[in-house]
Design goal:
This protein is α+β, with helices and mostly antiparallel strands. The protein has 4 helices and 11 strands; from the N terminus they run E-E-H-E-E-E-H-H-E-E-H-E-E-E-E.
Length: 194
């Protein structure tokens, strides 16, 4: 599993309905994308749920590098780049994936938390903690799914969890899920990735 995300931070007065309309128009185009586990079309708005910024930040879990590359080098990502400029794309190596207790519910909210792996702690212990956190989040009421990954160039972990409703204690940035393309969700490897 590979995780990927880019963020488009929007001007403070940007009409986020433009993003909603774009996702309504093009979101379904990845509903059958080969190699894609899932893409969560994420939006947070300045002043909503405590967000300091408006940001469009799709998050992907890929089953194959070929599927990811076909997207990045193809018309889909080029269309986004043409509309908004080419964003930096973050990539993480998968650590864990867990279906949540509300796996069959629609995902309406997402929580993303990034944090550095602490210095002085063996890497194996730090990534085990990330795996345990993904499992814990998936067991909380309303959790649709949870994933953890690591960027070894920055020694940073990322957790993404999708929720039926906004979790009362979101530890990280809270996003609205505008659409979920999940053609290969069932094929995402459950549990620890090594």
């Amino acid at each position: 599993m590979h995780a990927m995300q880019y963020e488009l931070t929007l001007p403070a007065d940007y009409d986020t309905d433009v993003v909603r309309a774009r996702v309504a128009r093009v979101g379904r185009l990845l509903d059958g994308w080969s190699g894609l586990g899932l893409k969560a079309y994420l939006l947070r708005e300045r002043g909503v749920h405590g967000s300091p910024v408006s940001q469009y930040a799709p998050f992907y879990l890929w089953n194959t590098v070929e599927g990811m590359n076909a997207f990045l080098w193809g018309a889909g990502f080029q269309g986004l780049s043409d509309d908004f400029g080419r964003p930096a794309v973050r990539q993480w190596t998968g650590l864990a994936y867990e279906e949540g207790v509300a796996a069959d519910a629609p995902a309406r909210f997402a929580v993303r938390r990034r944090r550095p792996l602490p210095d002085g702690v063996p890497v194996a212990a730090a990534v085990r903690e990330s795996v345990d956190e993904a499992r814990r989040l998936a067991r909380e009421g309303g959790a649709v799914l949870s994933a953890a990954a690591v960027d070894t160039s920055r020694w940073e972990s990322v957790h993404l969890s999708l929720w039926e409703d906004a979790p009362p204690k979101a530890e990280g940035e809270l996003f609205q899920v505008l659409h979920l393309s999940a053609p290969g969700r069932a094929a995402l490897p459950a549990g620890r990735q090594w």
